[in-house]
Amino acid sequence: MLQKTEAISLSYIKFKESSIIARFFTDKFGLQSFLVNGVRTAKSKTPLGFFQPFQILEVVQYHKEGKDLQRLVELKPGVALTSLHFHPAKSAQAMFMAELVSKVIQEGQANTSLFKMISDWILELDQSQKGFESFHIRLIWNMLQPLGITPESWQDIFSKNGNAEIEYKDKSEAFFNSVISNSSTAFHLDNETRQVILDRLIAYMQLHLNGIGQLKSISVLREVFS
User: Fold this and answer.
1) pLDDT at 165
2) pLDDT tens digits for 112-153?
3) CB 198 within 8 A of CB 137
4) Strands 30-36 and 19-26
5) What are phi and psi of 61, to 5 degrees?
């Protein structure tokens, strides 16, 4: 059946000589994989840039329930991003979050609230000029609700980590209060505190969701912000 949906590009791998297998988070169908033939040729009308992490797209596809690889009919940008894939700190966040999203969403299950949350985050990060270094941490926290694993309070992410909650309590409390209150003011975290909170959030997600495992792009993120 021919279907049209919004999509967020997560990743792709090379397939044979000129094709790729692309993974998208779609508004209608959740996580999906597509075989895209001939995209790695000089004659291709579909730039590989369309498949960069967190590119927002409009997709027309032949959708078949239960099929591992869906078929693309038409693909075009949904919005024009101006800085996300050119700014090192922004692109590192996008790459990391795309990897995380691909591991926390189940194949073929729609989650429209999460899709909108991530789409809005992409646009905000793209348009921000400063104070965006902790945006990925804010998004991870906000994702917990549509994923169905919201803790009773932010302190729960530190509950099994010994003295870390004491050492970073004040800075973490101020940050999460800002996030929970939806403050429009950019909140600055020093790099060390940012890394601690990120590690605790990932550990919390690994405890409550299956299949996350190791995140390869986290090393790039840490290097960029070190």
Assistant:
1) 54
2) 999 999 999 999 999 999 889 989 999 999 999 999 999 888
3) yes
4) antiparallel
5) -140, 155
**Burial class of residue 29 in the structure, from the number of CB atoms within 10 Å of its CB (0-12 exposed, 13-18 middle, 19+ buried):** buried
Give whole-number Cα distances, 187 to 14, 117, 195, in Å. 39, 19, 15
CATH topology for the 88-225 domain: de novo design (two linked rop proteins) (1.20.1440)
Q: What residues does each domain of the chain span?
A: 2-77, 88-225
Q: How far is CA 213 from the centre of its chain?
A: 16
Whether pLDDT at 184 is above 90: no
Which is more confidently placed, 157 or 60?
60
For the residues of 164-214, what is the DSSP string, one character each? Answer: HHHHTHHHHHHHHHHHHTT--S-----HHHHHHHHHHHHHHHHHHSSS---
Residue 52 corresponds to which amino acid? Q
CATH dotted code for 2-77: 2.40.50.140
Decide if 39 contacts 52 (C-beta within 8 A): no
